[in-house]
Specification:
heterodimer; A: 230 residues; six-stranded mixed sheet; 29% strand; B: alpha+beta; 11 helices; 13 strands; 50% helix; binds adenosine-5'-triphosphate; binds magnesium ion
Chain lengths: 230, 391
């Protein structure tokens, strides 16, 4: 049997709050396999972002274990976590988080600069990624000149350009209208199918939920329901 | 590092006006510091040149008892000119100087002076000694402009001097000011008058004697001369270096203020950008940067200000500094009151070493100032940075 991409066991996350503690995740057990197109669904404050951040090695569990691509998140040093993100993870944020003074091309090229690709390899990969999202005509524009949908497509290209094993998308459509949302989601669906990239969303947007093949409902820091779409 | 420079450059130029404002302030400090350092080395060069031309030429022999800081030694510090030097003397490559202590009575006031006897026909020093070659009842004398101003003396004026001869007897005579020269060399002007050597030797009954022997050729092998001490040009100009060193301390404070101003602007920008760009910092980390690399990026960004400042400074500084080096810098105040050797118009000297060392120093300081606030990034929590919530 194939090893799971993500394997979470008894995961608890507590935050200091005032004098005491606030438990945002109260014992999560989940597994994800290669090529999944899954989403964490739940109301605001249910712990979606918290869980995504831990899977993305930006945060560490309080207790329990999160294995991502064979790495135990709590045990990684800051350097090892950075290496995991650099090589294997792609992030897509609600607010795009593009570098405003860099062009579309430079934004997408950014993750490759960290990976020692030659200039010609980088160029080939960036153009390919921009083709996936249909933005080859905006190469030299800068983010402030782009629409929200275009920005999010740049962000997807940036997350996908190094062909990571896992893409984590936190509310990627929250700032988009219906048309743009559908366009984005179709793009991600295609990439998921063609590149076998695992996608994990955090969302409460009905439009996104409609595309998911696995829906995990979080409620108050616990998994409420975990269902596969046939 | 290459990536960091590339990204830093993009971020910096992308930041626009603020960057250029900082760069401008920094480049201004650059140019002013260079200018002032250039003035110092120009001053040093000029003071030494003036001193060489007006006073010490290629070096001097001093009578072994002569001490310029102790006028009481003067009555004993003279000896017959050693015969072994007569060739140089005859060729005009050596000028004997006899010095004694005396007083002058301008407008009836008493002022003590050094009376120096120098051959009227010498051409080794720039002193206008040919003006001593005059026949008058009074002794012909030349004085420096500083003296003339202090004593309110003018060319053509008569004034009485008094001195003691070797036997200790007082004697007095009138002198006639035949010329006033301006040398910028206080040690050749202040508190002294020049008379023809023969006149002074006669006045003191010290025929054929001298206190100082100034020679032209500084390279020539100089054997020891009985009764005299050799003073090389380096030893004689050392006092200028010392004097300039004390001036440099004062200037250092000005550099410090200038640099501080520029550094404050950069420090402020760094602190602000670390605060304002939290999301960007979070993004870098999410994309696989270590926090150390982000610190490096921000440090390079700050340090790059100084590199841009050097370039911008070169743009307007090069023609500006080149112009003052060529046309000189007229001192806005009357320099003769300074009591230190300084010309009314200074020609700054900008050496390559000066430019390079100043640039390196400013780049180094800017880097440190940029690094200091950036260390804070290393303590940031990436998830909080991404949310932009750190206060
Ligand atoms: N750094 C933190 N310190 C303290 N409490 C935190 C921190 N991060 C999250 N929390 C708390 O944990 C809970 C879960 O937060 P989380 O951001 O994961 O929710 P979410 O499901 O993503 O909500 P939303 O839909 O609003 O984004 C919230 O109550 C939140 O206040
Ligand atoms: Mg959230």
């Amino acid at each position: 049997m194939e090893k799971p991409v993500i394997s979470i066991r008894h995961l608890v996350k507590k935050f200091p709050a005032g004098k005491g503690e606030f438990t945002a995740l109260k014992g999560i057990d989940l597994e994800f396999n290669t090529g999944e197109f899954a989403g964490l669904i739940g109301p605001s404050g249910s712990g979606k972002t918290t869980l995504l951040n831990i899977i993305g090695s930006l945060d560490a569990p309080s207790t329990g274990e999160a294995l991502v691509l064979g790495n135990s998140i709590g045990q990684l040093s800051a350097k090892e976590a950075a290496r995991l993100r650099k090589h294997s993870l792609g992030f897509i944020f609600q607010s795009y988080n593009l570098l405003a003074v860099h062009t579309v091309y430079e934004n997408v090229e950014f993750p490759l600069l960290l990976l020692d690709y030659s200039a010609s390899e980088r160029k080939k990969m960036v153009l390919e990624a921009l083709e996936w999202v249909g933005l080859t005509n905006k190469i030299d524009s800068r983010p402030p000149k782009l629409s929200g949908g275009e920005c999010q497509r740049v962000a997807i290209a940036r997350a996908m350009v190094k062909k990571p094993s896992l893409v984590l998308a936190d509310e990627p459509t929250a700032n988009l209208d219906a048309d743009n949302s559908h366009h984005i989601l179709k793009t991600m669906e295609t990439l998921n199918r063609e590149l076998k990239t695992t996608f994990l969303f955090a969302t409460h947007d009905e439009k996104v939920i409609g595309y998911l093949r696995r829906k995990i409902f979080l409620k108050d820091g616990r998994v409420d329901k975990d269902e596969w779409v046939k | 590092m290459k990536i960091a420079i590339k990204l830093a450059y993009r971020n910096l130029t992308g930041a626009g006006l603020r960057t250029w404002l900082n760069v401008l302030v920094l480049s201004f400090s650059f140019v002013v510091i260079l200018f002032m350092k250039g003035v110092m080395s120009g001053w040093d060069l000029q003071a030494k040149t003036d001193m060489t031309q007006w006073e010490i030429a290629g070096g001097q022999y001093w009578h072994q008892l002569y001490d310029p800081f102790d006028p009481f030694t003067l009555s004993d510090s003279h000896a017959p000119i050693p015969p072994q030097l007569s060739d140089e003397l005859a060729a005009g490559d050596m000028v004997p100087l006899l010095i004694t202590q005396g007083s002058i009575y301008p407008q009836g006031r008493l002022q003590s002076v050094l009376i120096k006897g120098i051959p009227a026909k010498q051409s080794l020093l720039k002193l206008p000694t040919h003006r001593l070659d005059t026949v008058t009842d009074a002794y012909p004398a030349i004085i420096g402009a500083m003296m003339a101003r202090n004593l309110k003396l003018e060319i053509g004026q008569y004034v009485t001097i008094r001195w003691r001869d070797v036997n200790g007897t007082f004697d007095a005579h009138d002198i006639l000011i035949t010329d006033i020269f301006s040398s910028n060399v206080p040690s050749a002007e202040a508190g002294q008058i020049y008379l023809p050597l023969e006149t002074l030797q006669e006045m003191l009954s010290l025929s054929g004697q001298a206190t100082i022997l100034t020679f032209r050729d500084e390279k020539k092998e100089r054997p020891a001369v009985e009764g005299f001490t050799l003073k090389t040009k380096e030893t004689l100009t050392a006092s200028i270096d010392e004097m300039l060193k004390t001036k440099e301390v004062g200037q250092g404070i000005l550099y410090l203020i200038l640099l501080l101003l520029a550094m404050l602007a950069i420090f402020d920008t760094q602190v602000l950008s670390i605060f304002k760009r939290q999301k960007e910092i979070g993004t870098y980390i999410a994309l696989g940067y270590t926090r150390g690399q982000v610190v490096g990026l921000f440090t390079v960004e700050g340090a790059l200000h100084s590199v841009l400042a050097a370039l911008v400074g070169a743009l307007y500084g090069t023609p500006l500094l080149w112009w003052v080096a060529k046309n000189g810098w007229a001192m806005p105040i009357d320099t003769s009151e300074f009591g230190v050797p300084i010309a009314q118009t200074l020609y700054p000297v900008f050496s390559l070493g000066l430019v390079v060392s100043t640039t390196l120093l400013v780049v180094l300081i800017t880097t440190i100032v940029s690094y200091w606030p950036s260390r804070k990034i290393a303590k940031m929590n990436p998830t909080e940075a991404l949310r932009g919530k750190i206060q």
